[in-house]
Amino acid sequence: MTNTSPQAIQTTRPAVSPYSHFMDLSKGEKILEMKGITKRFSGGVVANDHVDFDIEAGEIHALLGENGAGKSTLMHILSGLIEPDEGEIIIAGQKARIGSPQDALKLGIGMVHQHRKLIPAHSVLENIIIGHPRTPIILNKRKAKKEISQLAQSFGFEIDLDAKVWQLDAGEAQIVEIVKVLYFGARILILDEPTSTLTPPETEQLMLSLKRMVKEGLAVVPFITHKLPVVLDISDRITILRNGKIVDHIATKAADEKWLARKMVGKETLFDLHRTEVELGKEVLKVINLSALNNKGFQAVKGVSFSVREGEIVGIAGVTGNGQYELAEVLMGLRKPTQGAIFFQGKDIKRASIKKRWSLGIGYVPAERIEVGSVADFSLGDNMAINLYFNDNYCTWGILNFKKIYRGTEASIREFNIKTPDHRAKAKEMSGGNLQKLILARVISCRPRLLIVNLPTQGLDVGAGEFVQNKLLQLKKRGVGILLISEDLDETLSLSDSVAPIYEGQLMGILSRAEADKQKVGRMMAGMVMSSE
Amino acid sequence: MKIGSYQYGIEKRIVCTSFDAIKIAALSVALTFVLFSFFFWLEGISPVTGYFQMFSYAFGTSTGMELTIRRMTFMLLVTLAFIFPQRAGVLNIGATGQLYAGMLAAIGIGLWGKSLGSSALIPLMVVGAILSGGMLAIFVAYLRAKMNVNEIVVALMLNSIMFYLVKYLIEGPWMDPSGRPESAQLVKAARIPMIPGTSVPYSIFVAIAIAVLLYLVLAKTSFGYEIRLTGANPSSARYAGVSFLKIALLTMFIGGAIAGIAGIHQTAGIRGVFRIHRYFALYPGTWAYYGIVFGLISLSNPLAAIFVTFFFSGMQVGTQALQSRLGMGYGADLAFVGILMIVLVSGQYFYHKKIVWHKMGSRDRKKET
């Protein structure tokens, strides 16, 4: 496609400093305006419906909305990944056409994605300079290193430029991406769910850095699904999207959490968990001194012991990367333990195959919904068969009863209120919340006695997240033992009967519901204190 | 790009339905006809006459039709040998070697068991071909699944090894007593019977039955589901408890066995002897590579493969009429098939992309492939 507008801003800009037209802007001046942005996708979905949005110099303008509200689409339009069907974008008073992420960067717009786009095997420095327009063919790494460390320091970021990216945790990788777009000359920083993988101290550090950027006249647009307290803490203005339309603009000073949540969801059914106390039954899972390696061959799980009883929810609280994934995989048979024992209903299952564990009554909802939990190109009905194809109720003489599976899928779609035309829709057409509901429905249909759930509500909007949490509580009521792995401390504390904070592969203690308060668990998650036991 | 008042562009195609795929294939074939017209023009032949002769020979005469079906039997079998493991995400590049293994089993058993009746000899040959083709494939699959050795490299090397084994046997111990550079003639009992009144062996029914059976296995059984799951997302398959080793070994064994059956068809079905042709392009092992291309064109659907291989075999046979009827130079058929392959494979670009055009000033979008 060629450029249709000869007055496009690229041609009139001075070539030396790509964002000089921002430099003379003072705080509060509009640097970017989006007017009447409309984007339709195939299948009649209107992701953005005449959306107006603007960004001022020196502000943090949070974009709030549930999954599927159209936040990502709007920001992808701004960063050049999607072209709008209607509407215009005005930057520094001139109409601009953003055809690609490169165009966006030239205009000073940089996006930091939630799914990191860094090269793991390369160093931080190499990742930052790769693709930079001013990088010459022969690299002057020393000069670049000096420039980048100055830049990082000026905003209060601490990064080791020589580290390899695979060695970084999620928070550090995000800082690398932020520094990268700043080094590319971005004046408008778009952050996708910036706090979702951070510990509380890391979140605080990031907020300080963002505030420093804003002082320098940069504009920051975080877009966020939940974590409303964070939004209230850092932003100057808030825009709320629902079903592709702007619901409200508000100055943060005038907003409160309840009001924001109601505007986001459109109804008042929030913070409403139906938790009933259940008599705990026999032990379903007992883990003794379990250890395992991660994919790089390092010790990820270190001598973990705990048990889960019928009707009990045990919450493993911790930031991703502290061994929770490996622990879940070992329990499910996807990873071999290096030592220790696993008992399910009193039987040693250390050597049982994955299929055997499913048939015994262990269910697993993986955190990787798209990569592991579902098959993008399969229909919902075929996705439903993932845990049923070896189940005698659905399979006779090796012939699968797809009719029965599809009927069950339709029933689950209704029961779980999954938004889809029918079971023939492909999994890749589903939003994260609907996909998670489908996976949960599927695992529950295997009638597990022990359910392992990893990050069950991560990235889900408030409504879907609450639905999933209530489903877990319903299962608890039915006497299912649940191992809940979560990064969201509020979730862990509100659902669990006992809480086990995990840090670097070790359980820092096991606290009862009464003992577990947010500060104590938060400190243990950061590895600071051991429980007195 | 702008043409008149329309603006054209290329966009991502999110879903490629089977209707889209058929449309793209049909347009590719049409483009091939246009491109090949150049050769008619060089020879001073009207393209209309040329194509009429091609189609009327391949599908309109009994000789042509018999040749078409014989070629199709072979092509369908080697295509299925590729498709089945492909559905589990395992590449079977080794149909060539497996085909040679099947041929050797057929010739070996056929020459050894001269005195047996056909009711004993033919089943023995079939079992021999299935085991030899299948075991060769399992060797590749085991290295891949257990030690993560690249299956393409191993299969290609084995293809070469098998070819030289065939050459050694045909030009050595199994050579025709008269000294011609071909294998000794198989006895009548070791030949696959022909459909009465034709020169088409019954193996065509076997090939079609296998295609239908594979389709049913993939669509209806839990084994087929495990295969599709492994092919579509190996991590999900592992999560669901599917053993990759089991799936890789079984699908490759079945793929190899089908290639082995193609080996019987090619020896005991058609000629009754095996001759190493002067031209490399005419070795049956070389033809076996077309299975990969047909497999991709059929989008790994065994039923689609029946129609795809029928059409292409017809085209291959039809182009031979250009040599015999219109006096075009030797190789015209290979040139046609070559162009067809290149255009079709390039056309697969449009499985992921589509051309969109819209009138300037209007937002109504219309699609074209």
Which helices and strands, and how do they pair?
The complex is a heterodimer of chains A (533) and B (369).
Chain A lengths: L8 H4 L7 H4 L6 E12 L3 E12 L4 E4 L6 H8 L7 E6 L2 E3 L4 H6 L2 E4 L11 H6 L11 H14 L15 H14 L4 E5 L7 H16 L3 E6 L3 H7 L2 E6 L2 E7 L5 H9 L17 E11 L5 E11 L3 E5 L6 H9 L4 E8 L2 E2 L5 H7 L1 E4 L3 H5 L6 H5 L10 E2 L2 E2 L1 H14 L16 H13 L5 E5 L7 H16 L3 E6 L2 H7 L2 E6 L2 E2 L3 E2 L5 H8 L8
Parallel strand pairs in A: 3-8, 3-9, 6-7, 7-8, 13-20, 13-21, 16-19, 19-20
Antiparallel strand pairs in A: 1-2, 1-4, 4-5, 9-10, 11-12, 11-14, 14-15, 17-18, 21-22, 21-23
Chain B lengths: L1 E2 L2 E7 L5 H26 L3 H14 L1 H26 L7 H18 L5 H30 L3 H20 L32 H18 L1 H11 L1 H6 L4 H28 L12 H5 L1 H8 L4 H23 L7 H16 L1 H4 E7 L5 E4 L1
Antiparallel strand pairs in B: 1-2, 2-3, 3-4
Helix pairs in contact in B: 1-14, 2-3, 2-13, 3-7, 3-10, 3-12, 3-13, 4-5, 4-6, 4-10, 5-6, 5-10, 7-8, 7-13, 13-14
Commentary on this structure:
Chain A is α/β, with parallel strands linked by helices and 533 residues long. Among the domains of chain A are: 237 residues, P-loop containing nucleotide triphosphate hydrolases (Rossmann fold), CATH 3.40.50.300; 132 residues, P-loop containing nucleotide triphosphate hydrolases (Rossmann fold, 3-Layer(aba) Sandwich), CATH 3.40.50. Helices cover 32% and strands 25% of the residues of chain A. Chain A has 19 helices and 23 strands. In chain A, the strands form 5 sheets. In chain A, strands 13, 16, 19, 20, 21, 22 and 23 form a 7-stranded mixed beta sheet that branches. Chain A has a 6-stranded mixed beta sheet with strand order 6-7-8-3-9-10, sandwiched between helices. In chain A, a hairpin with a 2-residue loop joins β9 and β10. In chain A, α16 runs parallel beside α17. The N terminus of chain A is likely disordered. In chain B, α3 packs parallel to α7 and α5 runs antiparallel to α6. Chain B is globular, with a radius of gyration of 22 Å. A 4-stranded antiparallel beta sheet of chain B has the order 1-2-3-4. The C terminus of chain B is likely disordered. With 369 residues, chain B is mostly helical. Chain B has 2 domains: 87 residues, no CATH class; 253 residues, ABC transporter involved in vitamin B12 uptake, BtuC (Orthogonal Bundle). At the A-B interface, α12, α13 and β18 of A face β2, α8 and α9 of B.
